[in-house]
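Q: What would this chain look like folded?
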Amino acid sequence: MNQKNESTNKFNNETRYKLNTKWIVTIFIIILILSFFYVEYVKKLTYKNIYHNITELSEQTATQLNLAINDQKKFVEFMVDSINRGFFKTTDEIFDRFKGDLENYNFTRLVILDQNGNGTTSDGHLVQNYTNIQEFFQQNTVYLSENRPSTVSNNQVNIYSKTFELNGQKLVLFATINTTDYKEILLRRLFNGNGGTYLINNDGMVLIDSFDVIKENNVNLYDFFKTHYHAQNPDNLEKINTMQENIKKLQVGTFDIKLDEDIYFLHYEKVNVNDWYIVTIAPNSIIGKELTLFLILSVGICLFIIFIILGISIYIDISSQKKNRKLYKVAYIDPITLLGNALYFKENGSIYLQNPVKNKYIITLDINKFKALNNIYGYEFCNRILKTLGENLSKILPSNNITCRISNDVFATLFSYSKNINQLLNNIFHNVSKLNINGTELHVNLAIGVYKLKQNDIDINKVLDKSYMARSKIKGLYDANYYIFDDLLENQLVEEQKIESCMEQALKDNEFEVFYQPKVFTNTEKIAGAEALVRWRRNGEIIPPNKFIPLFEKNKFITKLDFYIFEQVCKDLACWKEKYDFIPKVSINVSKEHFINENFIQDYVKITEHYHLDRSQIDLEITESATIDANIDILKILNNIKAQGFTISIDDFGTGYSSLSMLQNMPIDIIKIDKIFIDKADLSNHDNIINYIMFLANRLGVKTIIEGVETQEQTKFIREIKCDMIQGYYYSKPISKEDFENYFNQHK
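A: My prediction, written as structure tokens:
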């Protein structure tokens, strides 16, 4: 019995052992097969994600480079347009006007050359027999050259150029930029600094190398890969040759290639200038190490699968999480602030938009004049500024925020907030901007744009754009903290785009009309003259000036409109002189945008001479804000205007904080007191601001006029304080040329 039991137990043990062995081998094979397919799946999924990420990063870099180049081209176009309009007589005048603006566009110098390649630079260098000069004279638009050595330094430069005529001579304007200045845009340190970007032309010549491994000039990227990275195997050669062919055809693409025993991912993206290309490269070394580690662990785990099956599952899960965290950090974390990057913000922001929580906001902010801080303190110190600012911002925002650094000094955040948003924004503006960098106290000025999300907002790019719009509204202002996007702003932007699309044609079609608002002498109520005002008649409707004048001042179209209105007024004056032998004194507004060219008045003089007009009958109105602009030599400009025989009015007086000492030195004839003072004045009490202005005018020996007068009570008060002239609806609104003729014939 015992022996039988003993044999049975032995058989059972052997059978169990054989079964366990078979089961272990079976599980081992299954795990091995599953591991193999799993690793391949992870590899394909990872490669797919990297393809997507490197493509997006390359596209973003190309977009930023395109924007920078377009801004620089527009500035060159603006300079040449100013020259062609006759604002300058000599090259020195051109240099004096524009060399102060060069730093804003990263230009190193201006150069003006004749067709023999001879000329000078804005920083005093003499250029003789510049080679290949005809390359630049053959271009009809703003032309951006390939890399070339500078004639006055050891740097490689790119040249923006456009031809013009000055004093009957055909010349070309160069605006040079060090090629390395484009490098800041390309410095995207991918995959722990092992990735980077090349800028090449469509022949493969390297223009910029963010890796700093190519030290020579005129290096071909395709040859560099083949020579330095041993890319001679047929598969690699085929991929490089395919890239070369695609770039020649102006196509884009993404592929992986083995270079120096490592896999690299490449994406080439077209830049919309000179057929240049961005080539972004990222290594697979991190991913490869993780996959190798995973395989080793899988083999080891299979040997002990029976005993630690649960542990293996946990370990695989932990290992996978670690791997994902490392990949996640490389792809989604900004290395300077340790916040999320743009990719993180867009992906997680898209998910956040689906959240049904109410009172969701998106904010973007940046530091005004951050480039100046970089120049003063250096990049390392400014990186600490960015890190500290990000920390301060994260502390102040509600705990459910998504806060990221999405580019340069631009931060974006998404959060929900049910309390007073204005209090939170003021807290951000006043506290986030106070920084302590290694014991150094520093205050930076922030520009903050805010958009409150609506229920149907599902596109992260669109809501981000709206916060950008709001931020651009506040950008550069020091008397406001933030701007909250509203429908008015969106409608305004749409309306501005419509206006800008048709303003040039409207000027050609004479859609802008001159209306005249009469001015009367206070004592006699007879005609004293008029103010010329512009109205835009389009499709039978009048567009009010407040809809287009601020936009024209912003986009500089106002200078063209001012010249147009001035000539229309001169035509009317000449007509009235011939018809009635009478010319009423007319005041015409002059935008301060003209003052960048101090000789603009000469064009006005030519127009008056053409119509044989007495310039003393033309009054040029200058806004008080123009008299206090630090960038304008207003005394020189006003003296020049006065020397040509025009009279001068200061418009909107009392709203611009002019200094009394400056006013007494100005050659002004008339002070126009702003409507706001008569509206707010206590007309029963003569001890008010208007009386002080009248006293000042009498001391300066200038005439006075109060505008915006609408009531008989206001008129009576103005007579009592002995103001010289009155303008306002009480006497007449702005009227057409024909109606004004009838008016001045009845009141002269």
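The CA atoms of residues 113 and 438 lie 50 Å apart.
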